[in-house]
Structure formats: structure tokens, C-alpha cells
From TrEMBL:
It comes from the Archaea. The chain crosses the membrane at residues 57-76, 96-117, 129-152, 164-185, 205-231, 268-288, 322-344, 370-389, 395-419, 431-450. This is Divalent metal cation transporter. Coiled coil: none annotated. Keywords: Membrane, Transmembrane, Transmembrane helix. The lineage of its organism: Archaea, Methanobacteriati, Methanobacteriota, Stenosarchaea group, Halobacteria.
Amino acid sequence: MSTGTADATETRISEPPSSLKEFLSYMGPAWVFTASQIGGGEVLSVPLGGAYLGMEGIWLIPLITFTKIFGQYYLVRYGVMTGDTFLDALYEKGWWLKWIFYYVFLGGIIYAIGLSGHLGETAGAFNSLIPAVGTNVWMIATVLAGLAIVGLRSYGVIEKIATTLLWVFLILVAFVSLRTAGIWAPNLATGLVPSIPGRVEGLGVGGMAFVLTMFGWIGAGFGPTVSYVWFAKDKVMGMFEPLDDGVEIDKYDLTDEEVHRLKGWGDIVLWQNLLSSAILAIFSFFMWTAAAATLHVRGIQPSGFTVIPEMAGIFTTQFGEWSAILFLLTTVAALFSTLIGPLYGMSRLWEDAFALHGLFDNYNITRDTTFRLTIVFFSAIPLALNLFIEAPLILFALSGALFAPVIGLMYLAVMYMSFEIDINSLSPVRKWAVALAVFAGVVMIVSGLWEARGSIETIVGLL
């Protein structure tokens, strides 16, 4: 129960936004997450669905985006309600939960391996626009640009750039899709009826296996999901505000008014996630329909890392070179935002993890230095792998095999910890949201294990 011991005149926790303008001013963490996610699983997998299946299976987009988001909602909400990130909380638990802390921590390295695919795709899209430079040069330039931006260690800069890129590629891909509406629109109603999808050779799966694969790839990936927590922390929402101000605060010291305000901040996080999932669904819809209207109708069935150039080629033939340039600019914006958002968030995660282990108390090293060393490390991994191994499919598959089930584990762990918040209903109260979060967690573990199995088979086949 709240003790109400704080001075009533103190304003340790600000009132949550009460107008649309104020709400939008706090949408930054959701914008950065959405921009980061779109350039990941959505750009790589959604066009393959449209290319192989046409409009069949498009019903999966709203199902996945509007269920997975609730697990993420509780990850972010936990920090806003308590002032501790879920990582902090896991570290304080017994080993039956604490091991997830180290799983997530090491996930930074595995995620960096997976970024090799995104880096290669970004450089490939740049190279399609200006081929004279060469893919390797574009990869180096992309990494240097990312380091220059993220190295500022400014969440505000990341938010501004990611938000701009988000709306640029949303507008562009909407334009591209709507230009082809006459082709895909007649089959839309049929595609929205749930059915078992056919086989998608570009992903090596079909039927329910394709459904599970899509659950793993779209909606909320590991890097963007984990990073979202630190985006909210650096936006100083809810209980993060007094901690950012250097004010010592305990949940049992909250006044009734502060508890009321925290509940309001929890609602803000919910609406952030709902709006984010809506944007993800809209973007995925446009990408799927664009692929269905260009690649599928021509019988072109690309693999995961040729789908973007294939689509650009069709746009050149069908609408002119200007449309292909627009599409490639869309892809570049999406992929680059996927690189900078999680690079910032994962580096903040490592910085806080080192703090929990006493690095800054016991050694003469600052948080800024640690953060910048971490972003260099995370950037060097995908760049080196692409330059010297040149096997993005193997690297992407390896990343999936090593880290597939972690999102589901995070969802279920944070749900358990959320019910330990025993202060005036700050624990979850929406049963339907809890049910969706648990459902998403279980499905993510199942789909993650399935993805790991498929990734291992892919690695064996490519070696």
C-alpha cells in the first residue's frame, strides 16, 4: 500500500500527457522502435510472403502485430511502473530467472551477428542506387554513418532521425503500394480470411511452419524490443523521471497522487504500443501488397536477400526508373533505422549491465566511454563478417539458431515480475492484455525453437 510519506508539494513524477499534442510528444520511443522493427523482419520476410503467396496469408499481419505487441508492452510498462528495467529486476532474482539476464546480455553479440544481413541489405540497396561505388564501400560508409550518429550518445538525436526515416519510408511504400492497388485489391477480401498458407521456398517453409516463422520475424524482434525499454528510460517516463533527477524513491514511499500518475503513464505505454502495432501492420500490408502485385503476378520467386532488387527491377519495367528509386530509398531508410535504433538500445543495455557488475565503481572508466566502446564492438562484428566471410544467409541463420526463443522468455519473465508489483494496482489489471501477452510469449518460444531448428538445417545446407 502507498504510505503517502512524501511531501505533498513535491512533484517527483509528472502528470502523464492529457492532450493529443502532449501524447505525441512522448511517442518518440514508439517511433524509434517501429522504425527499428520495420527494417528488420518486415523488410526481409513480408515481401517474400507477397511474392510467393500473392494475397493468400495476408491475414497473418494483423494477427501477429496485434498480439506480440502486448508482451513488449509489459516489458516497457514494468520499467515505467518501477524505475527498474526488466534487466535490473532479473539480475536481482534467483538463478531460475537470473540466467535470462545473461541470455539477454549475450544476445547483444548474437544480434550483432544477425545485423550482418541488414548491413548487407542496406549496402546492396545503396549499391543499386549508385553501383559505381561498390557494396563493400557502402557497407563501410553505412557503419561509419551509424557510429557517428549513435556515438553522440543522444537519445534525442536517435529519436529525431528514426522518426524522420519512419515517416519517409511509410509515405514512400504507401505510394508504391497504392500505385498497384488495381492488381491486388480484388483479392484482398479473400486474403484476409484465415487459411493455411502455401509453401514459401524463399524461407524454406510452408503451412503452419510459415505461420510460426512469421511470428518469429515480424511484429517485435529481439533488438528493437529490448531497445524500446531503454528508449523509454531515456525519455524519462514514469518512475524513470525521479531517478533521472537523482531523487531517491521507493515504491512504498509513493503518494496516492503519484500512484495515480503512474497508472496514467502505464496507459500511455499501452497506447504507444497500440499505435506502433498499427503502423507496423500498415507498413507490412503495403510491403506485402507491393510484392504480390509485382513479383507474384509474374511468377518471380526470390530468395530472402534478392527480393528487394527483384522488386526494384519490376518497378523500373512497370512504372519507370523513378518508381524503383523511390522503392530503394524506402528500403534504405528502413534498413538504416534498424541499424541505429538497436545499436543505441543494445549498447545502453550493456552499459547498464556493466554497472550492475560494479564496473564504474571499481574501475576508472566512464559510462560514455563504455557506451562508445560497445557500439564500436557491435558495429565491427557485422562489418567484419560481411567483408571476410561474405555469407549473409549463414550468419542470419546462425543468429536465429542461437537466440530464437529469448523474446518469449522475456515476455513470460516480465509478466511474472509484474505481478510482484503490489502497490495499489500498479500490477497488471487488464486480463485480456495479460492473456494476449502470455499467448505471445508461449507462441514466441514455440516459434523460436522452430526457427532454431530451421536455422540449423539452413546452416548445414549452406556449408
